[in-house]
Design brief:
Structural class: alpha+beta
Strand order of the largest sheet: 1-6-7
Largest sheet: 3 strands, antiparallel
Shape: elongated
Number of strands: 7
Length: about 160
């Protein structure tokens, strides 16, 4: 798990980070490290004037998903899921050489002349584009494009 916590003693952009400071009415945003002097007297500011964060006074963590490599910031130490791919195993490294079981389709560059002939042959025998896509592992849109190029103007059996 790669979580970087902004705490006391850390440095941000070469400046020492000291966390939220309230002495002398000087405040520091834990999200963007902006320092400012409050204009109003009494009470804490509602948000940071630079990034508009309402959680400017809390510890801020930068997380990275091992599934989709998305990086995001949060005030939670252990987020439940990645906000981009929604994986609950975002903090678990993926083993090298391991492929996802959902990735089945053949990329367009892998469709050679033999595979194109196979698609045309199966379609000529009466199989639908959907059945061919499932059987060969080629995406439906690629199967449809191949069939449409060979049977231009005809009604395509989807």
């Amino acid at each position: 798990m790669e979580v970087i916590s902004m705490g006391s003693g850390d440095s941000v952009n070469g400046m020492p980070y000291e966390g939220p400071v309230t002495a002398g009415k000087v405040y520091v945003c834990s999200r963007c490290s902006h320092r400012w002097v409050a204009r109003k007297k009494g009470g804490l500011p509602k948000n940071c004037p630079k990034c508009r964060s309402t959680v400017w006074m809390k510890d801020y963590h930068v997380c990275k998903c091992y599934r989709c490599n998305h990086k995001w910031g949060t005030v939670n130490e252990e987020p439940k899921r990645c906000p981009k791919c929604h994986s609950t195993k975002w903090a678990v490294p993926v083993k090298t050489g391991e492929s996802s079981p959902r990735v089945r389709s053949v990329s367009r560059s892998m469709i050679g002349p033999d595979l194109m002939k196979e698609v045309v042959r199966r379609y000529a025998e009466g199989e639908s584009c959907t059945a061919i896509a499932i059987a060969t592992g080629i995406s439906f849109s690629d199967v449809y494009a191949i069939v449409k190029s060979h049977y231009a103007g005809d009604h395509i059996l989807v």
